[in-house]
Amino acid sequence: MSEVCFVCGRRANRQCPADSVLEHGSQSAAGASLRWICSQCCGRGRRRTINCPDNCPHFRTGARAALLKLAELSQDLDFEIRNGEVLHNLRLAVSRVRRSRLPDLKDSEVRQAFTNAADTMRTRSSGLIFDFRSPDPRVQMLGDALLSVATLHERGEKQMAKTDAADLVKCLKYLERQAAAAKKQERGDTEFLELIVQSVSREYLVREPEGLVEGRLRLKPEIGRQRTSVGSCRAEKDRGKRTQTDIQASE
Predict the structure, then answer these.
(1) What is d(CA 204, CA 181) in angstroms, rounded to the nearest whole number?
(2) Cβ distance 237 to 223 under 8 Å?
(3) What are the domain boundaries of the chain?
């Protein structure tokens, strides 16, 4: 007897390790045993209505695909590779606000929050103290979350990688450009947000005194290759030209 998808009732071809699933508007525990799910419901619900664990192979495959699409929006894969850790944490701040406080968040609001946060960090880098605030409380809420993460990176607190304010401005402006590029594609009001939600892990990427936290992020320089984890890209170059692009999820 074939297995049945617990979401739609169709034939299922994979197991779902999620610890919770949002069904019919309420949160329900998935239970100790794995549930069966079809590929369509897995893809539609991934990090939207299904709380996928970071080690799920189907989530990691989806995260790689989502991150490649984000990198394509900005056409700057090298920047994505160099700043993958900070970009991941800023994106996770957006994802958490959307999940817990603003489920109807729109791409346009996210773009404005990136702009305000970048302008605030820019003034800080010049030695001035001035916060660019939005009259929209939703945009301001998200902007505060972004600045909170950016400040932790600037100060190197809570084991986040210490990053200059000027570099944080570049990261925020980079994300703003991605949001603008997504808007030009005219695929809906939340296309950019959907990619963000599907590209990040559950936890912020942090460092320990001896290096990066095992299981969250690893950066290992290899001959002709740079590698990052969930929320990062891997580029291989041959004679100065990129020959292959991939995303490597953390084991």
Answers:
(1) 26
(2) no
(3) 1-53, 60-246
CA 100, 103, 109, 111 torsion-angle sign: positive
Tokens found for residue 204: 């912020």
Count Cβ neighbours within 10 Å for each residue of 238-251 and write b for 16 or more, e otherwise. Answer: eeeeeeeeebbbbe
Place of tokens 């947000």: 193
Q: Please list, in sequence order, all residues whose beta carbon lies within 8 angstroms of the beta carbon of residue 77, skipping any fewer than 6 positions away.
A: 71, 233, 235, 242, 245
What digits encode the pLDDT tens for the residues 188-241? Answer: 899 999 999 999 998 999 875 544 443 343 333 332 333 334 444 443 333 333
Residues in the chain: 251
Residue entry with tokens 């740079």: 226
- The amino acid present at 114, given as its one-letter code, is F
The H or E element spanning position 26 is strand 26-29
Give the contacts of 249 (CB within 8 A, at least 6 positions apart): 60, 61, 63, 64, 229, 230
pLDDT for 21 beyond 70: no
- Residue-wise pLDDT for 31-81, tens only, equals 456 889 999 999 989 888 888 999 999 999 999 999 999 999 989 989 999
pTM of the full predicted structure? 0.78
| 63: CB partners within 8 A, 6+ apart | 198, 199, 200, 201, 230, 231, 247, 249
Cite the DSSP H helix spans in 126-164. 137-155
Asked whether the beta carbons of 231 and 205 are under 8 A apart, the reply is yes
Among 84-98, 116-130, 147-161, the range scoring the smallest mean pLDDT is 116-130
